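User: I've been trying to design a sequence by hand for this structure and keep getting stuck. Would you show me what you'd pick, starting by listing the structure so we're on the same page?

Assistant: Good idea, let's start from the same input. This is the structure you sent:
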């Protein structure tokens, strides 16, 4: 049986190619640790008040300093008012968090 760990925190989303800081995000990460038969898996979610320019691969730096490459997909857009819109994203880890 696999144990899933959850962590919440504030992190930084970087452009993988340019190493440009794109956003500071509040994230929720789910993680299944590596076993002798399977690599670590991690995925999660975050929201922004402005959309990302493109859905691509990014580097996410977690609050504890670990970094990993992830792909990002737009889940939905929530318009709470004329002036407040949240863009909800899902992320999937591509590399190990180190």
């Amino acid at each position: 049986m696999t144990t899933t760990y959850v962590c919440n925190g504030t992190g930084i989303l970087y452009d993988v190619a340019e190493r440009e800081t794109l956003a500071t995000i509040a994230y929720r990460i789910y993680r299944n640790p590596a076993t002798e038969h399977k690599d670590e898996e991690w995925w999660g979610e975050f929201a922004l008040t402005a959309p990302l320019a493109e859905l691509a691969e990014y580097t996410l730096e977690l609050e504890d300093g670990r970094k990993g490459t992830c792909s990002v997909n737009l889940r939905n857009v929530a318009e709470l008012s004329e002036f407040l819109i949240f863009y909800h994203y899902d992320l999937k880890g591509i590399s190990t968090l180190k």
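That's my pick for every position. To get oriented when you compare it with your attempt: The beta strands are 5-15, 21-32, 41-48, 57-61, 67-79, 85-93. The chain is about 0% helix and 60% strand.
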